Please model this.
Amino acid sequence: MTPVRHARRLWLAVLAAAVVVAPSTALAGPAVAGAEADAGSGGAEAQVTLFPTDQLTVRDPSQLTGRRVALPMPDCAVAPTDCQDIALINQLDGFDLDPQVSLRFRGPVDPAAVAAGVQISAVTGRGAGGQHSDRPQIGLNRIVYDAATSTVYGHPTQQLAPHTTYRLTVRPTDPGHPLSAATTFTTESAPTGLLQMRRQLDDGSAYAAAGIPPQDRGLNFDGVFPADQVTGLSYTADKGNVGGTGTAPVPNTSVTNAGYYAFGSLRTPSWLTQDVATPQTSTSGRGPVVRGANQVGFAMIVPAGPAPVGGWPVAVFGHGLTRSKMDLFLSADINAKAGIATVAIDVVGHGYGPGSTINVSTLDGTTATLPAHARGFDQDANGAIGDTEGAFTPSQPSRLASISSRDGLRQTVADIMSLVRATRSGVEVPGAGGAHLSTAPVSYYGQSFGGIYGLMLGGTDPQVPVVAPNVAGGPVVEVARLSVSFRPLVANDLGHRQPSLLNGGYDGFTESLPLYGDPPVTRPAAGAIAIQQVLARETWIQRSGSPETFAPLLRLSPPRGSEPKQVLMQNAYGDQTVPNPTTATVLRAGHLQDVESLYRNDKTPNAGTNPHGFLLDPTFGLGNLPGQQEIVTFLVSGGRTRIDPDGPLPVWEVPVTDLAVLERLNFSIPP
Model:
């Protein structure tokens, strides 16, 4: 029997024992690797099986890696949701950048001793930037031991490079367990799809495919208003035929230094299907296929006074999940004072429905009603449109459910790239006294979700050399799992899988997953292993639209044609929405600890309050304006000047003194 056939037989056997993503390379005897010898010859039973392994791939010359994943299917009548996930994974050109490593033994082992003997080292380095092949050997962390199957699970101690081949080796550290084993595996080209989309924008092919001629690639203004004449802003949300409409005032702290408020739209290419998915294409080709055009709304604040020679420099602001571009008015007054024009668009699926409007009341007693060009739609056809409806693929039991926000985030980043190119084309703001925008490169800052897709933008667009993500973390799946706000969404996903994986506990499930640096979990809860494997699979599927993937591209290994970026990271101690361990993951992935500013909310009068929104919330007096001042100083200087917002005081750590403090949740959760 060949090693590949033997590996597939072992896979199916383990799958039948309810291990969903199983160890899969067959090895017989010490120091014999599955890819190097016929582990199945002579009828010997495998001593150790390893996952991931390239034995579970097929050759595919259309991919950058030359491979495509080929995991065997479980019984789709018994586990239809697993089949749907594996079908998505089998379109990818390699394994996850932070794979769940599985080491299965014939009998009991000491998981800590096994983990101490694991080494992962690069064999070839074809990742973005090309310098990953000489990285030191990597160990295993976040260990879980399943005694029922004698399987040790873990994750690499550092994020792996894309489209790179690694050697996974298990060496004995205990004379009582003398087994050795090894295999090789190749990682997926996770950043490539978004890079391909950016190249399509730059060569014009995306616009041509979307039917957007050169003269229609700029900004279209619906209304421009002198800020000192505006008495109020409100937003009317189109919530669908059943939901009706709702009008609410727009909080506005950007009054004192604003010259003009401007609203309008731009046309951008769309790579999304109606299901908010971008079908997978080969990683060595031109990339995702354009499927149409979007009309994307923007809001802009132009500073007061005459524009400088060359025009107002531009910063793009990115809003958070459930929010809209109207959060610009909470984030840009200090920008205007510093002479920066600030512009924002809606994330895919945000702003409610297409009938939403922006209402501008002025001193003359009139109210102008402008189209919001909102991006939500009635995705589930129930007559109501929610505040994020259309931002994700349909939920379980949809075959695309595990894609989730991946492609909506990539589309949002591509839309911002179009916005950047439009603002740099030479824009005169009509009715603003000749105010015009600079054609220089654009800077970016974003809060929460805006920080998440801001990392993706910064890693892929050379026209955005300065980025300042606020309260961002990743992977997106981990943000949801650890978050007080979003954990119920994970429970909903697990509960609607077929079969359901809810096993009781905090918000309905217990996953028994350790954090980075925790001791091994040796008694996982019943059902926890299956949940861990689903989370690992979903992270693998979503990796190409998750921020930690792009963190190394900021400075460590910029993509071809890009220079290292100037980066400022801001986060809050004890953030309950984007928890601190997910921030630590991004910082480790991009080697960004030296640019991390940590707002120590625990040392303020707001210590009992979730600090996630401190940048936009004036009630966080020691975080709100000081945080904005740090960002605007950074942007104005082109990323050359960094300040400590409170100087020698302890509320801001600039930079963070100990990354380990962010490896903890730093807030209490139910037992």
